[in-house]
Design brief:
Number of helices of chain A: 0
Low-confidence stretches of chain B: none
Distance between the termini of chain A: 41 Å
Shape of chain A: globular
Order of helices and strands of chain A: EEEEEEEEEEE
Structural class of chain A: mainly beta
Oligomer: heterodimer
Number of helices of chain B: 0
Largest interface: A-B, 20 and 22 residues
Shape of chain B: globular
Number of strands of chain B: 11
Largest sheet of chain A: 6 strands, mixed
Helix content of chain A: under 10%
Strand content of chain A: over 45%
Helix content of chain B: under 10%
Mean pLDDT of chain B: 94
Chain lengths: 109, 114
């Protein structure tokens, strides 16, 4: 069974800190990894997609890496801001998207 | 990318009734999907909506409970039939832009069954 796990489940940091969110997956058949942001009661916003041939992707203050050999991906957020507060979901793509449970991030002013 | 709209954005329904949720995309896409997000949970794929043929359902989801239509490459509907309080969830439509592998999601429909 394909599983995607995210650690930690919740994270609270002061504004300005750099932080790392972790995602691990058990199935080597997962070939792409996509990170999303979800604000309370809202849909998902795609942040970054890392394809199997890539090791990382960057967008602004966000950097996501993928290590298929270890079954891990990380999302790095630089200089966090209160507006970054949301739930961050990773999803492994192996024919269909398999979602992790998410990390709820709170950035305190 | 793709811009996706869903109707209704939220609804409160009586048990035993049915609700049809609409998903509209601003461009033609090959792959459309329906997900469910139960309270406090992550997303679970219900089915892949196939244009011109029957939807492909995931384990635990059946056509009689969640009939899906996909009449063209920009539109799909999901019906939640004979609803019970356990169906209270957010239902989300998503699309995969052609050959990009990246999925985009609609804003979701928040359903409460009383």
């Amino acid at each position: 069974k394909q599983e995607v796990t995210q650690i930690p489940a919740a994270l609270s940091v002061p504004e300005g800190e750099n932080l790392v969110l972790n995602c691990s997956f058990t199935d080597s058949a997962i070939y792409n990894l996509q990170w999303f942001r979800q604000d309370p009661g809202k849909g998902l916003t795609s942040l970054l997609l890392i394809q199997s041939s890539q090791r990382e992707q960057t967008s602004g203050r966000l950097n996501a890496s993928l290590d298929k050999s270890s079954g891990r991906s990380t999302l790095y957020i630089a200089a966090s801001q209160p507006g970054d507060s949301a739930t961050y979901l990773c999803a492994g793509q192996g024919g269909k998207l398999i979602f992790g449970q998410g990390t709820e991030l709170s950035v305190k002013p | 990318s793709a811009v996706i709209s869903q109707k209704p954005s939220r609804d409160i329904c009586q048990r035993g009734t049915s609700l049809t949720i609409q998903c509209q995309v601003d461009s033609q896409v090959t792959m459309m999907f329906w997900y469910r997000q139960q309270p406090g949970q992550s997303l679970t794929l219900i089915a892949t909506a196939n244009q011109g043929s029957e939807a492909t359902y995931e384990s635990g989801f059946v056509i009689d409970k969640f009939p899906i239509s996909r009449p063209n490459l920009t539109f799909s509907t999901l019906t939640v039939s004979n609803m019970s309080p356990e169906d209270s969830s957010i239902y989300l439509c998503s699309v995969e832009v052609h050959n990009s592998y990246e999925q985009y999601f609609g804003p979701g429909t928040r359903l409460t069954v009383t």
